[in-house]
Amino acid sequence: MTMMTPKHWNRVLIAAIALLTTWLLVLLTPVHDLLRLTGLFNSSVPAESINPPVDPDTGYYLEELGEGAWFVSGWSHNAMFVVTDESVVVLDAPPSLGEAYVDAIREVTDKPVSHLIYSHAHTDHIGRADLFPEATVVAHALTAEALEARKDPRRRAPDITFEGRHSLTVGGVSIELAYHGPAHGPGNIAVYLPQQKVLSMIDVAFPKWVPVHEFAIAEDIDAYFAVYDHLLAYDFDHFVGGHANVGDRQDVQDQLDYALDVRESARAAAGNAPVQDIGKILAWTPNPYVTANFGFERMTAECEAPVVDRWDDRLGGVDVFTHSHCRRMVFQAITE
């Protein structure tokens, strides 16, 4: 008969404590959170949040924004282009659109694509830059640095880079580019068409939806909140965010209001359960990660519930991603 060594007993004890903690979490977790954890989300979304109807035959949805500016959406990503007197200027080249992007442009005009603007370096938005091999690529200097490090042949190096602001005039159309900080990531720029009153900033505001996981994996959460002051200072009627619907000023304001609500709710939850108190409650746990995660989940749930109640009928995806937003902001609240 094999004797249990102290090491084995320690493992059994740790496993038992982990199991007990899991059961405690289940017992103390509201039903809404259990549904979220098991993937049984509320499948309904507000009617106005339903994404544009992509034509299954063409693979794209096309909408005119005025004075040569167009919004084009695929199954998961969107972009825009503007037709000038001379040529076409495109913003981004999402792989999810692929060749359908070119087809959408050709539905409108046969003019050549002269310029491709990179919103930022992420491949899900510019991974098909090869569709426009003759275009002059314009991007922020930090985007150029990121692409140089990655050496991805699908995302060729920019021909023109800038740091603060840059203006283009192509075929009588003015295009203003500006860097307002690393809201989503280094080099992520705002693209503004003043004549058409169209503004774009990718992966920051998601019109009529909440952002995806952890505020679209914002690398600098303080910069994420700060960029809204810059966006709302523009005079615009249409907003292109890279995902979901084409939006407007109210959509950008709603996104900021939602984010502020999450932040305040997270701060309140963190204040109600200081980290040192959580440590005292479960000080006997030999695995400190179990203790920490238990505390973070409780604070996250306390943040999440009121936010979901306030926003579930206003923005799509509240039941799916608010948990991750609250968890991100709980960590922010206990460290700021």
From TrEMBL:
> What residue stretches are annotated with the Metallo-beta-lactamase domain?
76-243
The lineage's top-level taxon is Bacteria
Q: Which SMART domains match?
A: Lactamase_B
Name the Pfam families on file. Answer: Lactamase_B
Matching PANTHER family: METALLO BETA-LACTAMASE SUPERFAMILY LIPOPROTEIN, METALLO-BETA-LACTAMASE DOMAIN-CONTAINING
| Name of this protein | Metallo-beta-lactamase family protein
- Give the source lineage, highest ranks first: Bacteria, Pseudomonadati, Myxococcota, Polyangia, Nannocystales
